[in-house]
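Ticket #4471: complex job returned nothing on first submit. Input attached below:
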Amino acid sequence: MHNKKELRIGLIGRGLMARTHTNAYKRIGDFFPELEYRPVLKAVCARSEDKIKEFAEQWGYESYETDWKALIARDDIDAVDICTPNSTHAEIAIAAAEAGKMILCEKPLSRTVEEGQRMVDAINKAGVKNTVWYNYRRVPAVTLIKQIVDSGKLGRIFHYRANFLQDWTISPELPQGGEALWRLDAATAGSGVTGDLLAHCIDTAMWLNGGITDVSAMTETFIKERVHQESGKVQKVNIDDACVFHCHFANGSLGLFEATRYARGHKALYTLEINGEHASLRWDLHDMNHLEYFDHDDDSVVRGWRSILVTDSDQPYMKRWWIPGTSIGYEHSFIHQAADFFKSLEGNEPCAPTFKDALETQKVCEAVLESASSRAWKDTQVEW
Amino acid sequence: MHNKKELRIGLIGRGLMARTHTNAYKRIGDFFPELEYRPVLKAVCARSEDKIKEFAEQWGYESYETDWKALIARDDIDAVDICTPNSTHAEIAIAAAEAGKMILCEKPLSRTVEEGQRMVDAINKAGVKNTVWYNYRRVPAVTLIKQIVDSGKLGRIFHYRANFLQDWTISPELPQGGEALWRLDAATAGSGVTGDLLAHCIDTAMWLNGGITDVSAMTETFIKERVHQESGKVQKVNIDDACVFHCHFANGSLGLFEATRYARGHKALYTLEINGEHASLRWDLHDMNHLEYFDHDDDSVVRGWRSILVTDSDQPYMKRWWIPGTSIGYEHSFIHQAADFFKSLEGNEPCAPTFKDALETQKVCEAVLESASSRAWKDTQVEW
Amino acid sequence: MHNKKELRIGLIGRGLMARTHTNAYKRIGDFFPELEYRPVLKAVCARSEDKIKEFAEQWGYESYETDWKALIARDDIDAVDICTPNSTHAEIAIAAAEAGKMILCEKPLSRTVEEGQRMVDAINKAGVKNTVWYNYRRVPAVTLIKQIVDSGKLGRIFHYRANFLQDWTISPELPQGGEALWRLDAATAGSGVTGDLLAHCIDTAMWLNGGITDVSAMTETFIKERVHQESGKVQKVNIDDACVFHCHFANGSLGLFEATRYARGHKALYTLEINGEHASLRWDLHDMNHLEYFDHDDDSVVRGWRSILVTDSDQPYMKRWWIPGTSIGYEHSFIHQAADFFKSLEGNEPCAPTFKDALETQKVCEAVLESASSRAWKDTQVEW
Amino acid sequence: MHNKKELRIGLIGRGLMARTHTNAYKRIGDFFPELEYRPVLKAVCARSEDKIKEFAEQWGYESYETDWKALIARDDIDAVDICTPNSTHAEIAIAAAEAGKMILCEKPLSRTVEEGQRMVDAINKAGVKNTVWYNYRRVPAVTLIKQIVDSGKLGRIFHYRANFLQDWTISPELPQGGEALWRLDAATAGSGVTGDLLAHCIDTAMWLNGGITDVSAMTETFIKERVHQESGKVQKVNIDDACVFHCHFANGSLGLFEATRYARGHKALYTLEINGEHASLRWDLHDMNHLEYFDHDDDSVVRGWRSILVTDSDQPYMKRWWIPGTSIGYEHSFIHQAADFFKSLEGNEPCAPTFKDALETQKVCEAVLESASSRAWKDTQVEW
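Support reply: We reran it on our side without changes. The output follows.
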């Protein structure tokens, strides 16, 4: 371990994603011992000194900052990890790129395509390593879907459908805005479920099934007004509480997507299914170690959906972990992405999804929101 | 039994629905002994004398006809059951109404709203009993959903979603048209999955959640040409192989619907889910005796989706059958509808869904197809 | 139909099994039209004239009797169907055999091996057709298990396990005995869950996996006293409320069985699983149209338990019914057995399980009860 | 963090359990920041210097030893963690106790009751902290079962059943013995599935449902001979490949247990179910974040098994982790146990299961093996 090259991390933020990313950095050495680089938790940054000091102590960062510009200015930081609300991604990322830092940015890339394009331009100009934390690609069952799709096993694809169902904003008493609830404030988040949840579904979908060409969408804001935590006043809610859209993929298949925070009984039910000529696959996050697979080539009398428990050493990432039959959790998708990013440093290859990939997802999100507001189909301009 | 009043049935058709309806008539006496009327299988009708004679013998019809007009003209027929391809529903139903017969018509009501409106006008003018076989309303688990929704338990409704997934037309070798495959011929069927599958979803949805006001749809024909069994030639396929749409309900909730015959691995997977403020419900046809129910009022640490095995005597229709834990099947939904129709004769009440109800479903279907072809939202004109 | 040979049925009983058997007879003509014999519901018999008259009218029997000896004495009865409490099986069956009647007897065959042996002797002497209604063999998914096992696919068998879990006798307020609750009265039933539930599990097990050689069992009576409905007094409960046993099969595999009426939440959960060297199978009655199948020969990364929806026309019995994806229910297992019995009349073959087969099940049941009371292993003396 | 008291760990072993325990120590600081003690990975020990050096580097141990006696002799070790094969537990633990070290011992405690009793005597004499890694108690869903049972919600308990099904030793080509396969060598392991798998089931069972009083068991060795990796010769296999037993609990309920490594299709399927008068609970390791719960007090028409996704902050341990709907894995059960052990240091309370608790499990295991070999019921002598 002592011969490893160091990659010094400066992480901005102290919320849920700051925790999942930090945990990922702390574990890759144990589980991916062959990596040539090792992370050093150099500094973490947030505006509240009390809170970021506590965070740094708990998680073992060597130092902390209260101004992200100071963090970026430090010479002892190689990579900046952006875990802040969406409204700050562009400014921080562009500054970090200009400072020559590698960037690991939490999803969604940006609030808008315009912001995202500027971010892509900045990293292109700077030539810095970059990745966006669309972590679900690295759930082993989802990675296995990718392998099966790429094998050609499915044949022609007819359908792709995904939804992401939650229920945590149903109460009208829930306020909007502020540190904990910025996801309900459009100015900070950019959008509601479209950027928060559908962006995940779209990233996975285009990775698995290619570009989305045009979309027809509908959004709804069920609770029209909520107290804003910053003003203390009842204000109009500007985010989309729910969003559904259908679309065409470039390969001729049909897509159907839905996200909502008003589906009582579902906590984080990200579900996807792909139907091909010869086989189908489906998966959901509430049962994340299982993959459902239907193979029409099986003998007809014993043909059925297979429930594959993805815990064997010949399945993606699983040789890193325990023994067949024992499962891993949500956090492991981040560990896998961190490991893949570190691996990518050795070979000078990009670590997908890059900022460019994430910008394509942003284009779909924006087309979806425009389609909903105009009640018309929209082309996405996606390059995939 | 011998004191019961007779209802003399004349059934037109000899396919799958002729069998499910005939089976229903033959069983209601055993399982609904309190009914005042009993069915008499007076006559069955199809063009092929050999085949209809065999059908009549197998199923116990007293006689057969080879011309539906002859059947309608008979004085010893009280009710006409229409189990023929969609293209013939209007003509037969209108003639039967004019002859003063009660009518039980297989779904969908018609190919078009125009046809359906003429059928409704005819039965209104004649004042005859009528019903349309949207059988899934009478699956006990689905009837139980209706009871729970009507109790107000769900509170404000946010989402309704349904799909109907099949995979039987994926092979390009499958021809279109003819006796067995008229569902692939738009001239006979009116449409593809929209009238065949989505019509079921729409009927249940409006029954449970009220009227659909406007729709935005997309259709696709994956296999563009197939041999036509009548001409023997390769011809353009005119039906929709797949159809998805989103919509608004009059109560402010959002709807999402999908049907396809290209979802590999699904045979007849009709799935529906409704999300309300306080509770959610979901059901699917492949597991038709179970109802999934989530009640947010349960204590939080033990809150979860309940899998309700709908086989107890206090659940809809189940006191008619066996013992708790023992299931019933697809055919029972038809038996229940037949029993409800016979019961409705006693009280002079309509037996829903009536022709009028089914016309509203037709309006949604037609708006869906128009939306898809025009790539624009359409109002449905539904009166619910 | 009019050219069919008649088989005139005399059925004794008017409870649940009288209904399932009668329903079976009434439907085989519609769904198995090729049968050379057709049932005629000649007479039904029970002690209460009011009730049996009503039953006969509801179900369409031509006549009724109030004394089973009178029924057996009738010349116009070809086959006697015994649906009475267990304590009467032996006397009725022996008399029926002596009268030269075919016999269809509800399970279990008898209360004891001694009774069962006399019944077997009687039918052997009389040379009459016979069968016992262990209906679960004819659930299509279970029949499919038999086909897969017989194909040799599983290789060497290691484990067979089955349980039958109910919860309907948990309340101490429930009385014992009388017409409705004779299953709680050992004098009438012979035993509790052993004869009622485990007998089903044992019949299926030996059919699928061969003879059981020796058993070690434990029984329990949780509620020690209940009001007896005949005496009106609190009396000791003599039945086994629960019974578990493990055993060896002749093929060297291990068996594990459990039945109870005290498993809160389970209505009629008959579950079985068989583990072989190359494949495993499992099934349960609450989801009776699905079969779970694991094939170790599948490619390792996509290997998993398959959920086979047994509704296709190439799966056992299913070409008789509707379309792929649409399920059948509990009652169909009886219809299939009735059809198989009628078919067996054409070829002069036995219709398994015969009285002889059912006697072997009785031997296991008796060994189980003896093992439990003696707290020692018992050999079964099964000939299989 | 820097003000925390140190607990200096010396871990013996370098296999799977060495990894799960080490991972646990490394994570409790991040997720249980309030703990007063923090682990210091002082030394790790195994016979192969090359391998233990590599292990120490990968996992961050400060030093390594190749002789466990040297490790125990070190003054800078506070607690010894025993992750070696079963045959060494007693000797190491007794020496560690005599050296005044705290002991965390991997399960099962010992090969025999005699060994285990000496271990208990030693820790009692030394008065040292001790725990045994029966990790499944700390799966949140299992801990939640304990809370529900302790609340009295279930009422009188009737049934407890558990099994642990694997399939990894089916091939006769698999050798026995040696470093990787000592679990197949009775001299090292003590027993086969009884100590390896049933011990887990028994520990959980007595924790949830109280003491087991007497048992009746059956074992089997399906593959009689295997090459031994140490001798290179074909030798008799002495372990139990499969073991089933039924038993009584002190509370009057019935128990049914099964473990095997020959259940094709199951990797690590630990399943448990408890049936009470008013409610039932079940859980399995392949779906470890879900708990199934049936509450008979629910309204009858909507009563059903609830599938509780145990990921909310008011459920055991889950406030430590991510957000509702996102799961944790196998390794977290060890993290929870490590955290509870460290917490127990603060209050001077025992950390269950202690050596004494684990000895009671050992008594049941031994009674099971004796029952199987003698084909007779055995009393367990458990004190619970």
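The longest helix of chain C spans residues 355-374. Closing as resolved unless it happens again.
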